[in-house]
Design a protein that fits this description.
There is one protein chain. The chain is built from five helices and 15 strands. It has 284 residues and is an alpha+beta fold. It has a seven-stranded antiparallel sheet with strand order 3-2-4-1-12-9-13, covered by helices on one side. Strands 5-6-7-8-14-15 form a six-stranded antiparallel sheet, covered by helices on one side. Strand 7 and strand 8 form a beta hairpin. The longest helix has 18 residues.
Length: 284
């Protein structure tokens, strides 16, 4: 099973602390060694990094973990491949343009034999995740007007997410730089940090931070992850079928829909034995 990490904040904030914790799970403290990626929104632009190598040992991930890139919305993913080979093209998060904005998507789960409707958006790789992203983008483009408000848009996103979750495991992060949509099929948790800020320690590596020294009293920063990243803070664990729409670090809409429980994750996400890792430049 892959893992997700998202951030929504009311002021540009770096993701170094949380990103450092998540990357340890990419082949060191967790099995998610089949690539990683992260997207940082900066105004209308998106700064993205991808690597099909394990995040725990990736020089690129190590470099990114020390970069204080300031963003109000960020989306990160570490992959445990179950559909699609281990290639750069199959590494989340995925991005597409719609209505003059970059939409970014990352998925955790598996929907066997997913079939997307025909449309303008097509996947580049061969994962079910990217196929679902393109399906979402085609549906939104075809059925909603350009000036659709986030609160109206989320109705369609929830409906689509529920339909996908009925077919398999569908945990996701989807954003456009203004808002961040999160949906839980099996696992997702969040924490909102605001004044008075305190210290925190990561679960997966001995790294601690005092947020009081890094923030102002007006800052609101929310982190969403597949599983809590710290061991000394109280995280809010999503329920099955729960969704939240975040903006500027706050939840602006939330709800819960019926989602069936599928067979156990360990059985559902067993990697395809035919999955291969794309040779690196040094190996070719």
């Amino acid at each position: 099973m892959c893992e997700l990490l998202g951030m929504s904040a009311n002021t540009p904030t770096d993701l170094c602390f949380s990103f450092t914790g998540l990357t340890r799970r990419g082949g060191e403290t967790g099995p998610h060694k089949d690539g990683w990626g992260v997207a940082f929104y900066e105004g209308k632009g998106v700064r993205m990094f991808h690597d099909p190598e394990p995040s725990a040992t990736s020089p690129i991930a190590d470099f990114v973990s020390t970069l204080p890139i300031k963003s109000k919305t960020a989306i990160c993913h570490i992959r445990q491949a179950n559909v699609g080979n281990i290639t750069l093209a199959n590494t989340h998060p995925f991005a597409r343009e719609l209505w003059g904005e970059y939409w970014v998507f990352a998925h955790n789960g598996q929907i066997p034999s997913f079939s997307a409707a025909k449309g303008m958006y097509e996947p580049v790789g061969d994962t079910d995740s990217e196929a679902m992203f393109c399906d979402i983008m085609n549906h939104v483009r075809q059925h909603l007007p350009r000036d659709t408000s986030p609160l109206k848009l989320v109705e369609s996103l929830v409906s689509l997410a529920q339909a996908y979750a009925k077919q398999g495991v569908f945990n996701c992060l989807l954003g456009n730089g203004d808002w961040l949509f999160t949906f839980c099929s099996t696992k997702l948790a969040s924490i909102t940090r605001r004044a008075p800020f305190g210290p925190a320690c990561l679960k997966d590596v001995e790294v601690a931070i005092d947020f009081a020294a890094e923030t102002t009293p007006k800052d609101v920063v929310s982190i969403i992850a597949t599983e809590p990243l710290t061991n000394d803070e109280q995280w809010d664990v999503y329920e099955r079928g729960e969704w939240k729409l975040w903006q500027d670090g706050e939840v602006i809409a939330a709800g819960k829909v019926d989602v069936p429980e599928h067979k156990t994750e360990s059985k559902m996400v067993s990697p395809d034995p035919d999955i291969e890792r794309e040779p690196s430049a040094d190996e070719s």
